Amino acid sequence: MNQVLGYVYVLMAGICFGFLGIFGRIAFQQGLTVGELLTYRFCLASLILWFLLLVFKPKLIRLPIKQVLISILLGCFGYAVFSTLYFMSIQGISVALAALLLFTFPVFVNIGAHFILKERMQKTQLISLIMAISGLIILLWGPLFVQSFKSVVYALLAALAYAVYVLVSGRLQKGVEPLSSSLYVITAAAVTLFLWHLPNMQKLVYLNINELFTILGLAVVCTVIPLTLFLSGLQRLSSSKASIVVMIEPVVAAIAAWMILDEKMSFNQSLGSCLVVCALFLNTKKG
Fold it and tell me: How far apart (Å, rounded) are the C-alpha atoms in residues 155 and 103?
């Protein structure tokens, strides 16, 4: 039952992460820059978490100093770096190619788990990883233009940074309350992103109600909820298994774009989505 909960938590996290592209596209259409979007997203998420925990669960704010430092490092060098590199990559390559390169991270996670953490990769796990990656290629295949080779490097570095984040979280934060860890990870990411991008914070005063709701959606639906769920899942699953399950994200993104943004869903997207879902189901099997 504990492992089943792990799969459910990671799957729900992937579904929430899948709406990141929807909110992100709306935010860019509203005129927000990458630096503004990322900083506002994590700053608001941090404020929401601090308020909720201070009011309802103040005990969860207290963590051993070691875990506070680990969470801060994960926020600074994990989430802040990964998010910035990914958004930098889509400035020079197609979004589809950026997504394909980003989702090489489960490969890095599985390699790291096998050779560094000494986790044994099961046969079904290897097959499901190959199936999921094949499904993603079919799902995301399209005009894969490259304006800058540097952007390709950014996307691969984003995948590597996310893989390190998953491996470290899964290894060093077992038994840590997910909300407590999320609090310090998100806060550290917010501070790092602010210092990195130095956005105009006064612009927040002039945001209209639609822009505020977009940032709120990014902060809650695509940050606080999925990050906490993912950390909860990592406490119940190996890093390698969790990294495959969370690959549901681009499938949800494609379906959400079809349903919300009225984008057409091609046969390839439907086939790729089915292949990924089958791979995730296979990943839950032993052997």
Answer: 9
Whole-angstrom distance, CA of residue 254 vs CA of residue 232: 25
Whether the CB-CB separation of 140 and 250 falls below 8 Å is answered with yes
Crossing angle for the helix pair 248-260 and 20-29, to the nearest 10 degrees:
50
Global pTM exceeds 0.85: yes
Distance CA 67, CA 229 (A): 18
Return the pLDDT at 226. Answer: 96
Spatial contact of 258 and 200, defined as CB atoms under 8 Å apart: no
Structural domain total, the chain: 1
Q: Residues 6, 242: contact at Cβ < 8 Å? A: yes
User: Does pLDDT of 156 surpass 90?
Assistant: yes
Give the residue carrying structure tokens 């491996």.
Answer: 167
- The type of residue at 187 is T
Q: Which domain holds residue 193?
A: 2-283
